Amino acid sequence: MEDRIKWIEGKLNLSLPNKLDLFKNYISDKSNRDVVLDFLNNEDQRRLYIGCDYEDIQVSNNSLPLLDKSIVLVKDATVGRIRKETIEDTVTVYDVSRETVQQVEGILDRVFVPLLVQDETTATEKTLETLHRLASLLQITAGNEKGDVIIPVPLIEIILNSDVSNVIPILESTIIQWTKQIKAAVRVDFEATVKLNNPQQLHEFNVWQDRKNRLNSILTQINGPLASQILNELHNAGNVYAKSFFAIVEDIKQALHETHENMTYLKPLLPYLDELMRSSEGVGVDHHTHHRQTILPLTTSLDLIWRHSRFYHEPRNFKRLLRHISALVVTAAERMIGADILRDPARAHLNLRNALKLCAVFRGCYLDCREKANEYNSAKVEETKGSLQTNKGFVMVTGPFISVHKRQKHCGMFSVNNLNDNKNVAGVWANSPWPARNAPCFNTLNSFMERANDVLDLVQTAHHFKKLECVARIGGVGQGGLDIIVSEIYEKFQSAMNHFMHVTDTNVLNIKKSGAPTPFEQEFFSFRSLIRDLEAQMAHVMRICFDRCVNTSDNIRLLEVFSGISGRESVQDNLGDKLNSIY
Fold first, then answer.
1. Helix H segments across 280-344?
2. Global pTM?
């Protein structure tokens, strides 16, 4: 191993002695190891964060949430690439824990602030600016740890004991910091992966709910007495930052209105998705009828959202919504199947069929809605073209889009509903056809259905060959030599099945792609090849048995003995002439 990484491991072992094996296992993955090497080799990467929480370890070049215990490696300002000969002198290691922020806040409040209040001569502009910046960072970090958005406020004790000439720059820097915080807080990132995100809930709705909470929190803090006093002081002094910030407050209110609007459109989907999750564990339920009663209004609601929502009418946003909903359908199907399905083929066979019926119902209802929606979309596009020609470019519409000029007038810097890839002109209906069944937004659903069909074939195969064990044990063939052959065929199958279960993941329905074929895909191909050979051997045994049968009743009895295996396609192809003579 590289000497520089060994040096990092040594420092980690001093601070986190029980986590060294976790770190070694973590960097055994190339992508994780590249994060460490990027810090060592890239002059632009100045810090490396290594944090541990219970049995988890995280490494990052940017930042990490406060964990139980962390270390931070920081390069000296004059160092670019770290060399193994000088790493001891050019990299500083800091221990950090959850209590670090509280400890620094305590030192600031109980030591530095009282000193500056008592001795005004030490309160230079640079000192005040540094302390206020530190206090802001501490407030922001403490809020992030709790999952809150904190608008930092200056140190009041120092403000009250400072000259006006020193106070105004501090208040201006506070407003600038607020603006940065607000821009980061209201950003909508639908693709961000949340570690604890509930896979049984609509992620799209949760993102809007989180944004709503952040916006309300920001407005509450801005309307608080201390923040209002800061803004009023700057406004009375004629400061330009206050005027700009008042405009930002109005933009926040507009963003909150848009967030509420998009949540209103999504909310009708939630009861159907909840019912889908609940019914996926139902016992003795007519799943096909029940799921159709749930999914049909779900897809109808999607159609209404697409027709009337400005945001979700855009193809990019609508496809993302479809991707999330189809992923929830897959989650419900996985719950129906259960875990460790290869241990109980009979139960797994029924559950897999029900899960595939659920996916088929969703796909069928979606395609029905898609056909009607695309007809409606084509008619609206033609209607818009006719209106453009009739009115010479001036269009009055009553669809989900208002005029672009009107929308730009009322939408602020945080608006999302005016983002349109199609660049609507004067608010005309945007051409937004529904994606086809094989579109990328349905990759998860299609991959799951393909894998579920493979597993269903695997389960059916296990169920059919399992019957051969009883045939061989009781001598059902009637010939000692043939019974031995059948027993050997079953043993070969059982050996192949045990190997398959040992090599593949416990969850054979895991469809996460990493570029290379999964163990299931590799082993399933080999397994099917072996099964075809065993089926050919069984067809040969059954042909010998058929040749020894003297009448039709004997043939029927033979089919009963080999029930299951006789219905397999490969066996029927090999015994086509014999089966045709019986039927």
1. 287-308, 310-313, 315-337
2. 0.72
